[in-house]
Amino acid sequence: MQKNCLLVLTLANLTLSLVIPSVGLEAIAQTTFGQTGQEGDRGRDGRSGRDGQALKIVVDGKPASYDLSGTGGEDGEDGRLGRAANSCEPPYRPEYSIIGASGGRGGDGGNGGRGGNGGDANIFYTDSAALQQLEIRNSGGRGGRNGRSARGGAGCGCREPEWQVQYCTIQTDRRPVFDANAQGQKNVTWQFHGTETRLCGRSSGEWLSDRGSYLRETEYVEGNWLYRRFNRGVSRTSEYTCRSGRDGETGTDGRNGETGSYGKITLIPRLDIPVEITSDRMPLSTAIGRKVGLVKNIWVERGGLSRLLRPSSDVPDRYTYLKDTARLFYQYDWAAKETPAALGVDRVEIGASVNLRNETAEIEYQLPGTLEYQLVSSNNLQIVKITGGFNPNRVSAFQLQSISGIGSENQVILSDRGNVRELLRDTEIEVQCLSKQSATGAVANDYMPRRSITFKVPPQKPATEGAIVNGSTYTLPVGRYCSPWLKANYDVTYQVAVKQTTKMGARYSQNISSAFTVGKN
After folding, report:
1. Beta bridge partners of 517
2. Element (H or E) spanning 362, and its range?
3. Least confidently predicted of 17-31, 116-130, 316-330, 452-466
């Protein structure tokens, strides 16, 4: 049953009385007894299994068996029990509620070890029927079992769930030790002196003294006064509780170890693996007229491995198979009128590499996009005839010469140090105008895109959009398109993107950026 307590607060000359539920006070005054139990140790993880042996197998038609399986992982150890709370003797009926200490949490179980992977096997043979005599087992090992969690330890228990504590009012009276006016001391009147609250004793007529003894009534002399103290009975009763400590939580089970993977099986229908030569590269002057051979093994993925081996085999379904070995030959020939040195390409490196496409080997030629060539095939030999071109250092060689003029008179002058206009298929120059000031004069914190113009410069025809090309000098009339943002003292940036396309279709790009203030050259 919930009882209310009276809480009296005195502030200066003001006294406040608050009624507070006793449950709240008990919660505040609640004290723990005993010591919390220690947590149980975590179980050790199991060790992983060993991988199976990798092996090279040459099939000779005789029955043979190979066990390349991975070993199993070890089991994880169980966690240890949590320790029970200790020093659990609760105080006897204290003047406050108590709660027992908790037990320790149980230890977690260890994780099971991972199973070892199966071993890889390279199988060499010349007769596919002989594979039926071969038994291979290369599965992964079983993962170890998880360790089990442990229970938590017990918490401290209570001697009794609840109790009452009674408080008695002790009154003190006094009288003079000797009164000359009194006719015998028996007629001397006792005077009230004060009261105090004490913990009641074994019965309502007793109280607990400072020294821990139980008293009913006592008299004593101090100075000229005789004092007597006696119990006026129970003034209040308080109820307190004891709650047992929680048992420790049960730990967490460990994880089961993963099963190891199958090893990789590779079938090679021959007795060796050809050495690959997949690329070649050298200076053009050295490469011309030189026959080069490239070697590429064609590996493919297949399914149905268990049908090829002895039925008792334990292998993955997928396997790698050497389908073929491609041997390709190519040669660079010079067919241009000018010599390599005259065109400036004698030191340019060229070459080739072999790649696979849909299980077919193909040669990919590695030539600068500025060289022009033709392909001719003849008796398993691909001939690359170089018919012309120029050094790749001559593209993307533009340089900004100047920016001048205000408004529609503004122009950009570029210089092509490579001077390759007539050697290209096409040239495009895009100029993007950005400014901080708008056409009406509003100022932004950063450069804002305003307009973009693209000038096309073909090798033979005149340039577009009013651009003028005089040898290697390109004059671009940007002002006629961006004049609203090219007023005096405007802050402007030009972003120039040059795109050059060679006769073989290769594209080279170059970016130039320049910030300036209009009218201040």
Report:
1. 491
2. strand 360-366
3. 17-31
